[in-house]
């Protein structure tokens, strides 16, 4: 069990100890009330071929990649989304509706072996705080409730690297140390991060109360980094470094290609994990040209740091490797090494 570590705050003369921390006993025996004797959390799919899988938000960036991956692996996929994308993935069953509509969700979940829940509002620029929280937190609760009622074998849900609250926090907070992991104490200051923490809490409750097998994935910055030879992603990270360097430091300059995000999601369907906290998934190297030690010395000089080799991300990915057997395969430097961002030039013109 991890110790409670103080939060580092830039420019502040104090630290504090947050009170909230997820803990999960992986060996705990869970009971489904009214459904027979005790059951262990053992609902991981034995294989994807032939499995009936509902993907909510299946026409979004990550969702479309997940659907493509699952179809290629032989799964029978149903997509639930608010509207059909301009160029949707073919060969799947499609339903239109909102995950905040209980009847729509119940109909979509019925008869499924597994659910991949990706629907929601991704970030603070997708509506007001109440809309973001409602769609993300209530939508997830209804999907989990329907999955438990329908005796779905496995649920994989989208959490976020923002679930611990630091990156989007309005105050100049930083992690308590580097590398940080899923046990980093939370400091929530926005509706989006709060919704993601609420989703992990809901997952833990359903796992304990219903025996529902679940995996949360804390996705970082996810993009198609091969788009236009990597130029689109290159411009994005340079703009991010200019506009909010503290946020990038909190996220450890992490990223994940959308195809790797799909692979991690598929792996979660076939592996048994605790329901929470969500598992950090990311490429193991940063998008920076400088070493991570140099980046931390510049942007987090007061935060204790362990030995982090080369450009390795200052975020622990042990749980992704051990629980999901997942390793990212797409790296920015393999697309184009010139796209790696230089901290000295981050404030200059886009490439």
UniProtKB/TrEMBL annotation:
<keyword id="KW-0520">NAD</keyword>
<keyword id="KW-0560">Oxidoreductase</keyword>
<dbReference type="InterPro" id="IPR001509">
    <property type="entry name" value="Epimerase_deHydtase"/>
</dbReference>
<dbReference type="Pfam" id="PF01370">
    <property type="entry name" value="Epimerase"/>
</dbReference>
<feature type="domain" description="NAD-dependent epimerase/dehydratase">
    <location>
        <begin position="53"/>
        <end position="273"/>
    </location>
</feature>
<comment type="similarity">
    <text>Belongs to the NAD(P)-dependent epimerase/dehydratase family.</text>
</comment>
<dbReference type="InterPro" id="IPR036291">
    <property type="entry name" value="NAD(P)-bd_dom_sf"/>
</dbReference>
<protein>
    <submittedName>
        <fullName>NAD(P)-dependent oxidoreductase</fullName>
    </submittedName>
</protein>
<dbReference type="GO" id="GO:0016491">
    <property type="term" value="F:oxidoreductase activity"/>
</dbReference>
